[in-house]
Amino acid sequence: MTAYKTLLLSLQDGAAILTLNRPDRLNSFTVEMHEEMQDALTVIENDRDIRALLLTGAGRGFCAGQDLNDRAVAPGSKAVDLGHSCETYWNPMVARLSDMAIPVICAVNGVAAGAGANVALACDIVMAAKSAKFIQSFANIGLIPDSGGTWVLPRLIGQARAMAITLTGEPVLAEKAENWGMIYKAVDDDSLMDTALSLTKKLAAGPTLGLAETKKRIRQSAQNTLTEELDLERDAMRKLGYSSDYAEGVAAFMEKRKPVFTGT
Asked: From CA 132, how far away is CA 109, in angstroms rounded?
């Protein structure tokens, strides 16, 4: 796989493991790291052997968001255009993670703060170590929750909780995040990666087209009326009914054996 300075990328059994790798800075992003992330996501999207993605962090944290020491955001003699950073780096990354045509699992191994928390929440399934915590730290420096924070948080946990944790910056521990519905599951620290990787490999061996259509319909359904969504479900079912994976799934069910999906 491609070698990077700020990331680690490997492949196991159809599952890509992408690790944010600036542990000395809690995996906070610089321009270089953003550019490498864009390249890594392109590699993953273009590799047909990759059928699921696991995103995690190296060291004691998942991601502390933007590295405020980076020249792209550090205050200097003139005001900094933070909108440029959002438009050029954060927004495309969040959109690509959300829209990928494969399942994206996030294993939050430690603190996820600022944009780092919202990058995690952009993934399809989020697991977190019980010691991990999510912090919407933007209010502490006079900013808003970017990287999709103002959109995803009210939808996951409701307006009251979203308003409180974003205005106060109060940390949300992993088990509370699970109870609130912010994430899928909080697991023991020492079993996080094994649990997350096992799930990623299971999804990588699944019916890729059907999984991609499922995540698309769930993510887009809130924009539609029930009648519109029923029509879109019909169209998706029609397309998937012609897939090799559907034929294999039915055959395996009838023959009482484990299916071997090819993602086609």
From this structure: 6
pLDDT tens, residue by residue, 214-236: 999 999 999 999 999 999 999 99
- Structural domain of residue 180, as residue ranges? 7-204
Same structural domain, 87 and 52: yes
Rounded CA separation 174/139 (Å) = 21
pLDDT tens-digit readout, 138-180 = 999 999 999 999 999 999 999 999 999 999 999 999 999 999 9
Beta-carbon contacts of 254 under 8 Å, excluding residues fewer than 6 positions away, are none
How far, in Å, CA of 2 to CA of 255, rounded? 41
Query: Of the candidates 63, 58, 197, which has an alpha carbon nearest to the alpha carbon of residue 133?
Result: 63
CA dihedral 43, 47, 51, 56 (to 10 degrees): -20
Indicate the pTM of the whole model.
0.94
Mean per-residue pLDDT of the chain: 95
The candidate with the shortest Cα–Cα distance to 200, out of 21, 99, 56, is: 56
Residue 42 and residue 72 share a domain: yes
Could you tell me if 199 and 213 lie in one domain? no
Residue 73: pLDDT band by 50, 70, 90 thresholds?
low
According to DSSP, the β-strands at 133-135 and 172-173 are antiparallel
Cβ neighbours, 10 Å, residue 71: 10
Number of domains in the chain: 2
End-to-end CA distance of the chain: 24
Amino acid present at 13: D
Residues 17 and 69 in one domain: yes
Is 10 within 8 Å of 16 (Cβ atoms)? Answer: yes
